Amino acid sequence: MMIPLQRSGANLGGEMLNWAGGRAYEAGLTRLRLDAWTTNTRLHAYYQGQGFRHVRTVETRVSGACFERPAQPYTDGRLKTESA
């Protein structure tokens, strides 16, 4: 997934990841997983900053770096929290 460069810093990517996690949760899944190019360490750091953990890297694949985080409910542009 990509966002326009002029929207960089507005957390649009984070909102898209939260939305995807909400969809996974609604489908009865417990985790949201994604992969990235093995050489894109800036993207790896971004995903980790968004709460994903590194699962594994398959060096023989271009898109072989796997990350995951728990799927969570999502409503109206925000993650639901225990206190909400």
* Spatial ordering of strands, largest sheet: 1-3-2
The SSE order reads HEHEEEE
The gross shape turns out to be: flat
Low-confidence stretches: none
* Strand tally: 5
Overall mean pLDDT score? 88
Q: Give Rg in angstroms.
A: 14 Å
Main sheet characteristics:
3 strands, antiparallel
Share of β-strand residues: 25-35%
Counting H and I runs of at least 4 residues, what is the number of helices? 2
CA(first)-CA(last) distance: 29 Å
Percent range for helical residues? 25-40%
Structural class: alpha+beta
How would you sum up this structure in a few lines?
The chain is of the alpha+beta class and 84 residues long. It is 29% helix and 25% strand.
Task: Write structural notes for this entry.
The protein has two helices and five strands. The protein is 29% helix and 25% strand. The strands form two sheets. The chain has a three-stranded antiparallel sheet with strand order 1-3-2. Strands 4-5 form a two-stranded antiparallel sheet. The protein is flat. The chain has helices at residues 12-26, 41-49, and strands at 31-36, 53-57, 65-70, 74-75, 78-79. The longest helix has 15 residues, at 12-26. A hairpin with a 7-residue loop joins strand 2 (53-57) and strand 3 (65-70). It has 84 residues and is an alpha+beta fold.
